[in-house]
Specification:
Blueprint lengths: L2 H12 L9 H18 L1 E10 L27 E5 L10 E9 L1
Length: 104
Protein backbone atom coordinates (compact mmCIF):
# COMPACT_ATOMS: atom_id res chain seq x y z
CA UNK A 1 0.00 0.00 0.00
CA UNK A 2 1.32 3.45 -0.80
CA UNK A 3 2.81 5.27 2.16
CA UNK A 4 0.70 8.40 1.55
CA UNK A 5 -2.49 6.40 2.21
CA UNK A 6 -1.05 4.86 5.36
CA UNK A 7 0.02 8.31 6.61
CA UNK A 8 -3.43 9.74 5.79
CA UNK A 9 -5.23 6.95 7.67
CA UNK A 10 -2.89 7.36 10.65
CA UNK A 11 -3.60 11.12 10.70
CA UNK A 12 -7.36 10.54 10.49
CA UNK A 13 -7.20 7.97 13.29
CA UNK A 14 -5.15 10.30 15.52
CA UNK A 15 -7.70 13.10 14.94
CA UNK A 16 -10.39 10.75 16.26
CA UNK A 17 -12.34 10.54 13.02
CA UNK A 18 -13.08 6.86 13.68
CA UNK A 19 -13.83 7.28 17.40
CA UNK A 20 -11.73 6.68 20.50
CA UNK A 21 -10.84 3.90 20.55
CA UNK A 22 -11.07 3.59 16.77
CA UNK A 23 -14.14 1.73 15.50
CA UNK A 24 -12.69 -0.97 13.23
CA UNK A 25 -15.79 -0.94 11.00
CA UNK A 26 -15.33 2.77 10.27
CA UNK A 27 -11.62 2.22 9.61
CA UNK A 28 -12.40 -0.66 7.23
CA UNK A 29 -15.02 1.46 5.42
CA UNK A 30 -12.44 4.23 4.94
CA UNK A 31 -9.88 1.77 3.55
CA UNK A 32 -12.51 0.28 1.24
CA UNK A 33 -13.29 3.73 -0.15
CA UNK A 34 -9.59 4.44 -0.74
CA UNK A 35 -9.10 1.11 -2.55
CA UNK A 36 -12.21 1.55 -4.68
CA UNK A 37 -11.04 5.03 -5.74
CA UNK A 38 -7.61 3.66 -6.65
CA UNK A 39 -9.05 0.77 -8.65
CA UNK A 40 -11.39 3.13 -10.49
CA UNK A 41 -8.33 5.06 -11.72
CA UNK A 42 -6.84 1.96 -13.33
CA UNK A 43 -7.79 0.56 -16.70
CA UNK A 44 -7.43 -3.19 -17.04
CA UNK A 45 -6.82 -4.68 -20.44
CA UNK A 46 -5.65 -8.03 -21.75
CA UNK A 47 -2.68 -8.24 -24.12
CA UNK A 48 -2.77 -11.25 -26.44
CA UNK A 49 0.19 -13.63 -26.19
CA UNK A 50 -0.83 -16.65 -28.26
CA UNK A 51 -3.52 -19.15 -29.07
CA UNK A 52 -2.89 -22.56 -27.56
CA UNK A 53 -3.77 -25.87 -29.17
CA UNK A 54 -3.75 -29.42 -27.85
CA UNK A 55 -0.83 -31.06 -29.71
CA UNK A 56 -1.77 -33.71 -32.26
CA UNK A 57 0.99 -36.03 -31.08
CA UNK A 58 0.82 -37.76 -27.71
CA UNK A 59 3.17 -36.21 -25.15
CA UNK A 60 3.36 -36.15 -21.39
CA UNK A 61 5.55 -33.04 -21.41
CA UNK A 62 3.34 -30.58 -23.32
CA UNK A 63 -0.26 -29.85 -22.44
CA UNK A 64 -0.79 -27.15 -25.09
CA UNK A 65 1.35 -25.51 -27.79
CA UNK A 66 1.32 -22.21 -29.64
CA UNK A 67 3.45 -19.48 -31.18
CA UNK A 68 3.57 -15.71 -30.80
CA UNK A 69 3.12 -13.45 -33.83
CA UNK A 70 5.66 -10.88 -32.67
CA UNK A 71 8.35 -10.28 -30.05
CA UNK A 72 6.85 -9.85 -26.60
CA UNK A 73 8.19 -8.37 -23.41
CA UNK A 74 6.02 -9.37 -20.48
CA UNK A 75 6.99 -7.54 -17.28
CA UNK A 76 8.16 -9.58 -14.32
CA UNK A 77 5.32 -10.36 -11.94
CA UNK A 78 2.62 -10.03 -14.61
CA UNK A 79 -0.53 -12.11 -14.29
CA UNK A 80 -1.03 -14.62 -17.12
CA UNK A 81 -4.49 -15.96 -17.89
CA UNK A 82 -5.68 -18.64 -20.31
CA UNK A 83 -9.26 -18.35 -21.54
CA UNK A 84 -11.18 -21.21 -23.13
CA UNK A 85 -11.97 -20.42 -26.75
CA UNK A 86 -15.62 -21.18 -27.58
CA UNK A 87 -15.15 -20.71 -31.35
CA UNK A 88 -16.96 -23.10 -33.68
CA UNK A 89 -14.09 -22.88 -36.19
CA UNK A 90 -12.17 -26.13 -36.53
CA UNK A 91 -8.75 -24.43 -36.70
CA UNK A 92 -9.33 -22.09 -33.76
CA UNK A 93 -7.11 -22.50 -30.70
CA UNK A 94 -8.47 -24.33 -27.67
CA UNK A 95 -7.20 -21.59 -25.33
CA UNK A 96 -6.18 -17.95 -25.65
CA UNK A 97 -3.21 -16.92 -23.50
CA UNK A 98 -3.08 -13.25 -22.39
CA UNK A 99 -1.30 -11.11 -19.81
CA UNK A 100 -3.07 -8.51 -17.70
CA UNK A 101 -2.15 -4.82 -17.91
CA UNK A 102 -3.33 -2.33 -15.27
CA UNK A 103 -2.70 1.27 -16.23
CA UNK A 104 -3.35 4.54 -14.42
Amino acid sequence: MQTEYIAEMKRRTELGEFGTPANIDLVNDAWTKILEEELAKKETRFEDISGLWVPKRESVKVAFEGRTRENLEIPKGSKLIAFYNKSESEGAPHLNLVWVVNEN
